[in-house]
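Protein: Cyclin-domain-containing protein
Species: Polyporus arcularius HHB13444
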Amino acid sequence: MESPERVELPAAFEDADVDVLVQLIADMMERVMAHNDQIPLSPESLTRFHSRTAPGISILDYLRRIVRFTKAERACLLITLHYIDQISARMPAFVLSSLTCHRFVIAAICVSSKCLCDAFCSNSVYAKVGGIPVAELNVLEREFLRIIDWNLTCTGEVLQEYYVNLVRQFSKGGYVISDAQSYSSLSSDSDMDTEFSPTSSPAPTPQPVMQTLHPHSSGNVPSTSRREPSTFLIDTATLAPEAPQPPTLEQNMAFAALQQEHAQELESESDMDTAR
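Structure follows.
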C-alpha cells in the first residue's frame, strides 16, 4: 500500500493556509480532550468554562465556523494554545476537555482578536458564532482576563514553536514544513525530545495534560531557554488511557450550584443592561 502524499507547508505559520492551521490545532485539542475526558470530574475542578454536556459540534467544525464568520487571524488561533498552557499553570483546576474546550476557545479568540488585531467583531457577533448568550460570553471574557492576569501576548517565536510541533505531531500525517533548516532551533528532534517528553506517573488515574510553556513573571515574557513542559508540545499518544467514570452525586450537586450561581450573575447583568 502506498504511503499518503506528503504536503509541504510554509516554514512560517503566518504563511500557512488558515484551514490547515485549524486542522492542526483541532487535531491536537481532540487528543488532549480524549485523554482528559477520562479523568473523573471532581466538584473542585468545576470552572466557568464547564458546560453541563459536551456540545454537539466537533472542535474542528467549531473552529472552522469561527474562522468563517469572524475572519480570525492565524496568530489569534495559535495563541489559544498558549493561553491554555498559561491558564492551566495559573489555575490547576482548569482542564481542557469536551466540557470546557468550546467555551474556552470562543472566549480566547474573542480576547486575542481585541488584543492583536486592528479590526475585530463585537461580543454579540462572537457570542452568536459561538452559540452562547452574549451575557454569558461577557462573564467568560472577564473570568478569562482575571485568570490570565491580562497577559495576552507572546513572542512570534513561541507561536512558531507551537506551529512546528503541531505539524510534527499531526495524527493523520501527510504534512511537512518546507525549508525546515531555517527553523532548526525550534524543530530539533533532540532538543524537543529532551525538553518536552511527558513523564510517567504511578497514579491510578490519568493526570490532566496541562502544563505551562512560558510562565510569566512580573508581566515579562521569559526567554525560551527557560521553557517548561507544555500541553501542546508533547505527544499525547504516549499517555496511558483509563476507562471514564460517571460523575458522582456530589459532583452533580456542585455543578448544579455553580450553574445556579452563574444564572444569577447573568440575570443580574441583564437587569443592569435593561436599566441602562
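Remarks: The chain has ten helices and two strands.
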